[in-house]
């Protein structure tokens, strides 16, 4: 056996799910069977490149590796070309123009629910001394712009920059569809560009239609404020350079 290709690598692991890589195969283990089922269903519907499903035996999903390299990483400068970022925007637009799936996804939560959960997270951040009160208050104010009427589209729901793979200037594949469903288009665009504000113009140009940049910035604040506790509790570092806390500071 090829020791390099057959090495087992833990891609991500926490109490909810784990992803292992064995050669060119990714094994996703998820305690929530519905989340695995949703991922398989979404990949069968979307008009963008996705990983090939090799087999699906809940709670495990086996996927083939997609070619290319990640568009970027949170906390690191992206080496992808401006054309690749624009291609990512165009791919997101194709997704958003697709027929609506039956499921409401992560990006489809209503404003009242989002605001209530956000207030809980803001309170936790301040009460526990995780972030200064003025930083939290300013970003909570910025986040208000996300609470507005929107028309549902087919969203990825977790379109982090390292979930988009490029080959040269083109899109090779988009991974991790477990949160896909009906939702707010600008949630996807904000998630893709979080920590990479310098590429927002390229993404919007590729997307091909006007977007409200204040809402994009609102989602940057909302997502960052809402995720910090989860990240800390699951062993991730939102204080790393270029990550969530820096995104909040940039709004000051």
Automatic annotation (TrEMBL):
All copies of domain Aminoglycoside phosphotransferase, residue ranges: 30-209
Pfam families: APH
Record-linked SUPFAM superfamilies: Protein kinase-like (PK-like) (SSF56112)
InterPro entries linked: AGP_Transferase, Aminoglycoside_PTrfase, Kinase-like_dom_sf
Signal peptide: none
Superkingdom of origin organism: Bacteria
Gene3D superfamilies for this protein: 3.90.1200.10
Protein name from the UniProt record: Aminoglycoside phosphotransferase family protein
Organism: Microbispora hainanensis
Lineage: Bacteria, Bacillati, Actinomycetota, Actinomycetes, Streptosporangiales
